[in-house]
Each structure stands twice: as structure tokens, then as C-alpha cells.
Amino acid sequence: MNVTGLRVALFSGNYNYVRDGANQALNRFVGYLLRQGAAVRIYSATTSHPAFEPTGDLVSAPSFSVPGRREYRVPYRLSRDVRRDLKAFGPNLIHVSSPDPLGHRAISWARERNIPAVASVHTRFETYPRYYGLAFLEPLIESLLRRFYRRCDAIVAPSESMAQLLREQRMSYDVGIWTRGIDREIFHPGRRDMAWRRSVGIADDRPVIGFVGRLVMEKGLDVFSDTIDQLATRQVPHKVLIVGEGPAREWFENRLPDAVFTGFQSGPDLGRAVASMDMLFNPSITETFGNVTLEAMACGLPTVAARATGSENLVTDRVTGRLIRPGAIGAFAEALSSYCRNPEERMQAGAAAMARAERYGWDQVNQALVDTYLRVIRQRAQGARLRSSPVP
């Protein structure tokens, strides 16, 4: 079989109703599959006013809103209509991108019909409770995730560091890589716009520390804010530029009253905002890859990031940026201070980061996942049995 023989049913918790890095990657991948001649059908929670138009045919699955985070929805079952649609479509591979109830039902549906299933891992859900004072739940969530992923023929992670963590957590016997690419028409140093910087109140000689992402606490907003406080105490010249939107925006604005908040940006506007920074500060430990880090690198920026999954495979410490122990406020402040005070060091790291970003092209990245699809279909056809874990 080649790619034209693929009939992929993709299950997502959020395919297009709230924009994030995960569903941007999924939509790009579906577009790639369709261009290669594969058949694809997407099943996801939906809303009446999605953030963007979906790529491919999207079927709405029953869902409910998340208490306290009503912008998100949980798809919870394969309804009669969804089952009828699935049967008519006749997939030969199931792809689940979120460990939600719908994903569980999809895997069960596939196993009952001897159809292989692949899961993609997009975030570290087990780390989320610590940002809401519920760290004691992490072992339980990790156990639930293990049960979910072990039922799949293979899982794919966006970075080798994340893949290795999944192996250590005994999530699956078969862990591959589906990394992320970069749109070089949008993210490049030529997007830098000093006039735009001035229009939002940033002086030409002021080093800009940027944050890009959804404004939610699990992105490390508390660590970011505390670090910026230390820079102010040390009298380090800087300006903070925040690009993104989310439920924690009011909290973040109160913590950083002197920062510039642009709100949500996309396309060329996002490229302009990122390229107009001087460095990216990414203290989050929840990412499995760090799309924003790669985008900043492609714009020629150094990144100061937490030493965590995702960032470890993008940032080379003291070459393309700095990797700091998660939560180490003083060390984060020292690294940012060095880049703020030393333009030459900042430019050298940015040039090295841009060279590193050249490795990531979307077509090569997406073909790697297609190859995984074809391999698991071939293995299942040859009678391979599902192996749940490398550790009994």
C-alpha cells in the first residue's frame, strides 16, 4: 500500500474551535494527506463559532464544555450518527490526537474491527494539575494516560526528548517521532518591523523579551512574571511583549502592568510580532515540542527556555539560547539579563538558532507520520499482535 490507499479517521478533542499549536499541526497534516491522494475524515468536538475553517471533512461529535474553562469542550462518545458515518467512510487506520473519552471509544471501535490505531501526543497533560494546586493527581493522570496509549499500535511524539519520556513512563512499546515544521514565508528575520514596535510603545534601543502562546497558567505565566520582577529589581533595561490571548490575560496584565499585550496574532502579523522581539522567554514545561520556540528561532531569536521536553531538542544551551532548570527564577533572570545587556551575544545566538531552524520543513515532517501509518497497517496485515509496553 502507498499513501493513496490510506483512509484515515482522525479523532481530535479540538480540531478548530480554539486555535493552538496542536490543531495547527493536525490541519497542516490533513492538508498534506489530501494533497497526496489519501482519504481523511475528522471527528471532533465543534462549536458554532470556530477559530478557523477546518482542513478536510469535519464531523461533529457530542461534547460538553469544561467546567471553569468553557472555551474548551470534551467529546465523550461515538453517537449513532458518528458510528454510521464511520462505517460509511470505512477507514483502514484510526488516528487519535487526544486522550479523551471520544479517543477511548475510537480505539475500542478500531480494536473490535482489527483496524490499527495510532496516537499523537501533543501536550503533557499529567503536568497540568500542578498549576492549580493539585499536583497529587499527577500519578493518577499518568496511569490513565498509560492505559490509553497502550491500546494503540504506535504513538508518535514531536521530539526525541518527549519520546524518551514516554518510553520511561512505559506508555507504549512503539514510540516514533512526528516533529513540527516551520512556515518560512511567515517566520524569518525580514519580518522585523521597527515602525510597528514604535507604534506599540517600544523604543528602538530597548531589548524586547517576548512571550508567545495561549494565556493560561500551565504555560508558566507565574514563573515568567516572577522572572521579569527580578529583572526590574536588577535594573536591567528591557520591554516585555506578550502575544496571545486566553483566560489568564487579566491576571497576567495585572502582574505585568508595563508589558505590551498585542492579543491574538496570526499569519504575517504573528511573524512580524515574533521577528520584532529580541529574545523569546518560554518557561513552560507542558509542551511536547514548542512550536513558538521554533518560530522564534526561524526569525533569528535566541530562546531562554525551561530545560524540559520539547525545548531540549530545539535549544542548544549557550549556542542557540539558554536551557534553565524549570522554576529557577534567578537563573532565568540571569540568562535574560545577559542577552539584554550584550547585543553581540544575542545576535550570535540568534544566528545559530536560525541555522538550526533550517532543518524543519513541513513536507518532510509530515511524510514521517505517513510512513508510520503505512508501517502499522503493514504490520497488522502480516498478523503482528499489539504489544502494550516495553516493561511488563
Brief summary of the model shown:
By secondary structure, the chain is an alpha/beta fold. The protein contains 13 helices and 15 strands. The strands form three sheets. A seven-stranded parallel sheet has the order 3-2-1-6-7-8-9, with helices on both faces. A six-stranded parallel sheet has the order 12-11-10-13-14-15, with helices on both faces. The protein has a two-stranded antiparallel sheet with strand order 4-5.
Characterise this structure:
The protein has 392 residues and is of the alpha/beta class. The chain folds into 2 domains: 200 residues, Rossmann fold; 169 residues, Glycogen Phosphorylase B (Rossmann fold). It is built from 13 helices and 15 strands. The strands form 3 sheets. A 7-stranded parallel sheet has the order 3-2-1-6-7-8-9, sandwiched between helices. A 6-stranded parallel sheet has the order 12-11-10-13-14-15, with helices on both faces. The chain has a two-stranded antiparallel ribbon with strand order 4-5. The radius of gyration is 21 Å and the shape is globular. 45% of the residues are buried. The C terminus is likely disordered. Keywords: Transferase. Pfam families: Glyco_trans_1_4, Glyco_transf_4. This is Glycosyl transferase family 1. GO terms for molecular function: glycosyltransferase activity.
